[in-house]
C-alpha cells in the first residue's frame, strides 16, 4: 500500500512585497503646499537679489528680515491654533500693545529684566483668559468677543501711556538687541521665534492637545460626543494665543526699546493672512504651523523688498491683499475637489 505524503507546508507566510527605495516615496510624502510656499519664498529672494543685490543679500538685511518676522511670527503660531479650532482672534495686536506698555511702565521697570518679561506674559495670558471665558463658557461668538477685547485693550493701553512713548532703561533688555548678543550670527529674537515654532509644531502634530484642536475645528459636536471637553479646549486655545501675544510683546520691547499704545497695529490681519496662505483652513479642522511660518516670512520679505526699492506702502498692501485672495481661492478649489 502506497503511503501518500503531503508536501511540506509553508509556515513562513506570504512573501512581503519588495520595499521601494526611500527616495521613491519622498514625492508622495512631500507637502505640495509647503513646497509651493518655499518656491514663492525662493522667488522673492531672487527678485530681491536681482533688484537690490548689494542691499537685500547683505547679512545685516537678512538678519533684519528674520528679526522683524519673529514678533508677528510668534503671534501667528498662536493664531494658527485658534483658527484650526474654528475660532478667530481679532485682539492679538491690541493685546501685544497692552502687554508692551504695561511691561514698560516705570514701576515695572524697577523689577528689571524678569519683571518686564513676567508682566508681558501675564498680561497676555490674562487677556487670553478673558477671551476664552467669554467664548467657551459665556457663549459669545469669537468675532464679537475678541473685537470687544481689541477695543478695550487699545483703550487701556492708551490710558496707561497717555499717548506717550515709554522708553526702556533696563540694560538687560537693551543688550538683547545689540549685535554682541547674537549667537553664531543669529539674533536672540530669531532663536525665540524658532523655539516657539518648534514647540508649536510638536504641540499641534504630536500631542493629544493638537488632535483635539483639529477635532473641535472639524466638527465640534462630534468632538463633544467623542468625549472631548470642547469648552475647556477652546479656553486653553485662547490662553495659548494670549501667551504668544505676551511673548511677542516682550520681543517687540527688545526690538524697539520702548512701549507704545500703537504697537501691534494690524497684527491680527497679518497673522490671519499668514495662517491662511500657509494652509490653515479659515473654517477650521486643518492647520499647519510650518505653513504659517512660511507665510510670515513671505509677507516680511515682500515688505523688505518694497522698502529697499522705495515703493509706496499702498502698493505693498495691494500685493498682500492679492496674495490673500489667491490663497483663499486655492483653498476653496482644493476643498471642492476633495
Query: Quaternary arrangement of the chains shown?
Result: single chain
Q: What is the terminal separation in angstroms?
A: 68 Å
Helix content: over 70%
Largest β sheet strand count, sense and barrel closure = 2 strands, antiparallel
Helical segment count: 16
Query: Which class in CATH terms?
Result: Mainly Alpha
Strand order of the largest sheet: 1-2
CATH topology: ABC transporter involved in vitamin B12 uptake, BtuC
Number of strands: 2
The appropriate CATH architecture is: Orthogonal Bundle
Q: Give helix and strand order, one letter per element, not per position.
A: HHHHHHHHEHHHHHEHHH
How large a portion of the residues is in β-strands, by DSSP E? under 5%
The backbone outline, from C-alpha atoms, is: globular
**Using only CA atoms, what is the Rg?**
24 Å
**Structural class of the helices, strands and pairings?**
mainly alpha
Keywords:
single chain, ABC transporter involved in vitamin B12 uptake, BtuC, 16 helices, 72% helix, transmembrane helix, transmembrane transporter activity
Condensed summary:
By secondary structure, the protein is mainly alpha-helical. It has 16 helices and two strands. It has one domain (52-337): Orthogonal Bundle (ABC transporter involved in vitamin B12 uptake, BtuC).
Written account of the structure:
This protein is mainly α and 338 residues long. The protein has one domain (52-337): ABC transporter involved in vitamin B12 uptake, BtuC (Orthogonal Bundle). The radius of gyration is 24 Å and the shape is globular. It is 72% helix and 1% strand. The protein is built from 16 helices and two strands. It is found in: Cell membrane. It is a multi-pass membrane protein. Keywords: Cell membrane, Membrane, Transmembrane, Transmembrane helix. InterPro entries: ABC_transp_permease (IPR001851).
Amino acid at each position: 500500500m502506497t503511503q501518500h505524503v503531503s508536501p511540506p507546508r509553508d509556515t513562513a507566510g506570504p512573501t512581503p512585497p519588495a520595499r521601494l527605495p526611500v527616495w521613491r516615496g519622498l514625492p508622495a510624502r512631500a507637502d505640495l503646499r509647503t513646497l509651493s510656499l518655499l518656491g514663492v519664498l525662493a522667488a522673492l529672494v531672487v527678485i530681491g537679489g536681482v533688484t537690490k543685490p548689494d542691499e537685500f543679500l547683505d547679512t545685516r538685511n537678512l538678519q533684519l528680515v528674520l528679526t522683524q518676522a519673529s514678533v508677528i511670527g510668534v503671534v501667528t503660531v498662536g493664531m494658527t491654533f485658534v483658527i484650526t479650532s474654528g475660532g478667530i482672534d481679532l485682539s492679538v495686536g491690541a493685546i501685544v500693545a497692552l502687554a508692551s506698555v504695561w511691561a514698560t511702565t516705570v514701576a515695572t521697570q524697577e523689577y528689571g529684566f524678569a519683571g518686564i518679561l513676567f508682566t508681558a506674559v501675564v498680561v497676555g495670558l490674562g487677556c487670553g483668559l478673558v477671551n476664552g471665558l467669554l467664548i467657551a463658557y459665556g457663549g459669545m461668538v469669537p468675532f464679537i468677543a475678541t473685537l470687544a477685547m481689541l477695543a478695550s485693550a487699545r483703550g487701556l493701553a492708551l490710558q496707561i501711556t497717555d499717548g506717550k512713548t515709554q522708553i526702556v532703561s533696563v540694560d538687560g533688555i537693551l543688550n538683547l538687541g545689540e549685535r554682541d548678543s547674537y549667537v553664531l550670527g543669529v539674533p536672540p529674537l530669531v532663536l525665540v521665534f524658532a523655539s516657539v515654532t518648534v514647540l508649536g509644531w510638536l504641540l499641534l502634530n504630536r500631542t493629544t492637545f493638537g488632535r483635539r484642536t483639529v477635532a473641535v475645528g472639524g466638527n465640534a459636536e462630534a468632538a463633544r460626543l467623542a468625549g472631548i471637553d470642547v469648552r475647556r479646549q477652546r479656553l486653553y486655545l485662547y490662553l495659548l494665543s494670549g501667551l504668544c501675544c505676551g511673548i511677542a510683546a516682550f520681543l517687540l520691547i527688545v526690538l524697539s526699546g520702548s512701549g507704545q499704545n500703537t504697537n501691534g497695529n494690524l497684527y491680527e490681519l497679518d497673522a490671519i493672512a499668514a495662517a491662511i496662505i500657509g494652509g490653515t483652513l479659515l473654517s477650521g479642522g486643518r492647520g499647519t504651523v510650518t505653513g504659517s511660518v512660511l507665510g510670515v516670512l513671505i509677507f516680511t520679505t515682500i515688505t523688505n523688498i518694497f522698502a529697499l526699492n522705495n515703493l509706496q506702502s499702498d502698493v505693498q498692501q495691494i500685493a498682500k491683499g492679492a496674495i490673500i485672495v489667491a490663497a483663499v481661492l486655492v483653498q476653496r478649489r482644493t476643498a471642492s475637489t476633495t
